Amino acid sequence: MHPHRITLLAAAALLTAAVAGCGGGADTTGPSAAGCPAVLQAAREDVAKAESTDSAWTGPTTGPAAVPGKSIVYVAQTMTNPGVAGVAQGLQRAARTIGWEVRVIDGEGSPAGIQAALSQAVTLKPSGIVIGGFDPRLTSQQVARARAAGIPLIGWHAVDAPGPSTNPPLFTNITTKVQDVARISADWVIARSDGGAGVVLFTDDSIPFARTKADLIERRLADCPGVELLAYANIPIPDASRRTPQEVSSLLSRFGEKWTHSVAINDLYFADAAPALRAAGKPGGGPPANIGAGDGDPSAFQRINSRQYQAATVPEPLAQQGWQIVDEFNRAFAGRPTSGYVAPVHVVTADNSGGATSWDPQGYQEAYERIWRG
Fold it and tell me: What is the pLDDT, as a whole number, of residue 71?
């Protein structure tokens, strides 16, 4: 057909096909829903489910009784990472409950520091070592020494997936599913913006777990054509306090009002972004509306509850995961398999936090204590 003779009927058919091509659904609610109706509807449903405050314990209720007299060394990527520090605190409380000794060694965020910390941990000959938030492949020599000494390793955010790992050799790795965290973070942006947003993504590509999470977030955002990724800000976590304010100022200068939402692989980026956003006259409630795709440390909850430059987080149950590390080690010492438990994703906002400064499933301490008593 000649381009100047397209009928109104044909034009309508083309428009219908374009709308259906994004998501294949028929929902057209919301001002930007015509861009990806099915994606937008799915995002709204997933976010509503994740924001539910029903967090009853669905983890293990059976397992071996406490194996006495054990010692654990927690090697931290850096204790300035609130997630790493929060798990360490949970681990220490759980160890006191079960009657074990715990020592924390801070790798201080550098490869050399982490290698030295893990070397020190192996030299101490503990019953078990925790890989706290760093890639074990950066410390392959120290990991090999631990394995040769028969010291079991458990990771927290050490590899991409939860559960046992053969390479690197981990009895188990404790984390929520990165795919679920990435998807719900992106879905929150899609749902909140009605499918139309300009997004900045903050990440640390030096950490494989974080890089994978950022890639998954980027892919999910791309499912909705009305959501544009304006910038991919790669800032190593140890450098975040120094580099983030300057980066935020630069982003504001480049994008102005186009920047409506942010996603960060860790809440701490927003602690460092807040001064620059405030100095630029941006309101605490946004835009940009910011969601942290991980950790959920107390300072993040405080920003969310006070509506100061963070609107949401997808928190790890940090304390519970510290207790889980102890329980998984106890299973290893008793010659039993891992529990297989993976915490579900949850989205915290000012509307559902109840003023709390952390999130953990209800009843986990009592469940672990009952298991350990035998």
Answer: 98
